[in-house]
Amino acid sequence: MSKHPTPAAPKPARGGAAPAASNGVPATLADELRPGQSIELLKELHILTREGRLNQDSRRKLKQVYHLFQFIEPLLRALPEGGRGATLADHGAGKSYLGFILYDLFFRPLGAGHIYGIETRAELVERSRALAARLGFERMSFLNLSVAESGRSAELPGRIDVVTALHACDTATDDAIAFGLAKQARAIVVVPCCQAEVAACLRSTKALSLSRTPLAELWRHPLHTREFGSQITNVLRCLYLEASGYQVTVTELVGWEHSMKNELIVARHTGQKKRAAAERLHELVAQFGIEDVGAARFPL
Fold first, then answer.
1. Which of 149, 210, 222, 262 has its CA 20 to 30 A from that of 118?
2. In whole angstroms, what is the distance from residue 205 CA to residue 285 CA?
3. How confident is the model at residue 22 (pLDDT cuts 50, 70, 90)?
4. What is the pLDDT of residues 99-118, one digit of tens each?
5. β-bridge pairing 114-119 and 263-269
6. Strands (E), 83-202
7. What's the rounded Cα separation, in Å, for the pair 68 and 91?
8. Residues 169, 241: one domain?
9. d(CA 289, CA 162)
10. Between these two residues, 168 and 162, which has the higher pLDDT value?
11. Bigger pLDDT: 276 or 66?
12. Per-residue confidence at 206, pLDDT binned at 50, 70, 90?
């Protein structure tokens, strides 16, 4: 036995970089990151500090990323050949936070597949293009288009496997659903945000057939009108997807971006169009006097 104890590993200086493990991942992060995950990407997304550290806020962001990924990864793996060669369109991509994470954790290890980030702000599109080039994420494309324009764009393939739209405002969520149906998507994942169209209709018509019933109390106050309008909109979206041949699950996207708009709608294509869903959709539209919205957004 040696007379001299083995010296302890030196601790990093305060504010310095954490010691790296053999795979290049800081040793202090090895248990918190997915295998093979890009440290440089996490720094660019401000999930890690420039020194490669996690603070309380960035640890919460990382948890949110993984929470969202766990909803989408099974949809990709359920595709033919386990998702190899999959195409995904992310609408209202913003800084393409979601697209980059999905590419890094799923598409990059497979060495196949393609992600399209669709965003109206040109400066964010250019920034995403530059970051993808810098990281070598070559199967990512970023298009300066609205959701509605993307459905007519020749820059996108005729079929897209998975469509996502997180916090696409107001009717942009409906445009994303229409895009998914037109592209014969196998899965559609949306987190609706700021929908106001139905609320405006309720304010103008006051759902005349129900105005003399106690149900009118549901939209008597402006705040309730807005929230009730959002609720009805999402119910109609779910019925529309079911009537179009999708199995729909509604759940919470807990904590994502600290948003109160936290409803996650996941639709998986089955090909079995539910006639009862179409009938209920038409009945609700008629009962609440929002036929114009129904015709424009949910054409059946």
1. 262
2. 12
3. very low
4. 999 999 999 999 999 999 99
5. unpaired
6. 87-91, 114-119, 140-144, 162-169, 187-193
7. 16
8. no
9. 33
10. 162
11. 276
12. low
Please indicate, yes or no, whether residues 223 and 105 belong to a single structural domain of this protein.
Answer: no
Cα–chain-centroid distance for residue 279?
29
Backbone angles phi, psi at 161, to 5 degrees: -75, -45
Q: Are strands 263-269 and 187-193 parallel, antiparallel or unpaired?
A: antiparallel
Contacts 24+ apart (CB under 8 A), 223-228: 225/199, 226/196, 226/199, 228/199, 228/202
Q: pLDDT (tens digit, 9 = 90+) per residue, 124-142? A: 999 999 999 999 999 999 9
pLDDT over 80 (residue 259)? no
Full domain range(s) for residue 153: 35-194
* Tokens matching residue 179: 């895009």
Q: Indicate the residue type of 21.
A: A
Residue 7 lies in a domain: no
| C-alpha torsion angle, residues 96, 102, 104, 110 (rounded to 10) | -140
Could you give the maximum distance between any two Cα atoms of the chain, in Å? 92
103 and 151 co-located in one domain: yes
pTM, two decimals, is: 0.84
pLDDT computed for residue 26 by the predictor: 55
- State both tokens at 142: 């970023």
CA distance 163 to 176: 7
- Asked if the structure places residue 238 within a domain, the reply is yes
- The CATH number of whichever domain residue 101 belongs to comes to 3.40.50.150
Which residue has better confidence, 252 or 270? 270
232 with 284: CB under 8 angstroms?
yes
Measured CA distances, 57 to 48, 64, 277 (Å):
10, 11, 42
Q: Is residue 259 part of a domain?
A: no
Give the H/E segment covering residue 182: helix 172-182
Q: Is 255 a domain residue? A: no
